Amino acid sequence: MGKNFDDDDGSVVIVTDDLVLALYGQDKKWYRARVLKVTDTSSEPVVEVLYIDYGNVESVLLSKYAVLYAVCCCILQILVIS
Hints:
Helix content is 0%, strand content 50%. It is mostly beta strands.
């Protein structure tokens, strides 16, 4: 289930389990994250994210995240040369 929010650039749709880039509050760097929950109770929606590579969870303002389009792929055959 997605939620629509308007920002200066148009409409943004946020869905639980989306992969995003989120700004981590401690070091102000961008990390891969998965959306756990969206809360629209304040003047700006808050997105709860799980930082995929580190396992920690943080609530981030909607303006402090960017959509990461992930491409799933797999290798069909691997040739091992010894």
